[in-house]
Amino acid sequence: MLPKTQLGRRLTRGYILALSVIAATAVGGYVLHRAIGQEQLRAARMLSIAGEQRMLAQRIGMVSLKLALPRQWVDYEAIRNALTKARARLVETQRMMREGEPGIGLPPLSETALAEIYFEAPYNLNRQIADFAALSVIAATAVGGYVLHRAIGQEQLRAARMLSIAGEQRML
Predict the structure, then answer these.
(1) Which residues contact 44 (CB under 8 A, 6 or more apart)?
(2) What's the pTM value of the predicted model, to 2 decimals?
(3) Measured between alpha carbons, how far is 116 from 93 in angstroms, rounded to an integer?
(4) pLDDT per residue as tens, the chain (172 positions)
């Protein structure tokens, strides 16, 4: 049998070891939880911006098609202003996705797993968004829709009309 002092030391060491393991596990769990939470927050911000880009693309399509209506039916200046505003925001969100936005904790896409989809073939979403934004400039300068019709062709115009209807339905 061990003397009381040795038994006490053994128990004390055992308790200290057990409490140290519990503390290390708690700290490790907290650090892991924070890291996962931060990653989910970044992903949520990217998803939010991507959703805004989709909404802006639908709005640009809808507003662009209104330019094809006769002048007595629409206020061309208001339509062009709405188109310019939506296009500017689309370009800004594209910049935020491409370069990141430190103010909201958004890293550049080149530092994420989505870089391949956003910057490389076959999707190259960055190029598609830039092309769409450039096309919206053509639409904003269209006279009676003729330039828009000539620029994107009959098939694309039908697709844009369907997109516009879908966009209007989502905005209601």
Answers:
(1) none
(2) 0.62
(3) 18
(4) 556 677 777 778 888 988 899 999 999 988 888 888 887 888 888 888 888 988 998 888 888 878 777 777 778 888 888 888 999 999 999 899 888 888 888 888 777 777 787 788 887 888 888 888 887 776 666 544 454 445 555 555 556 665 555 555 555 4
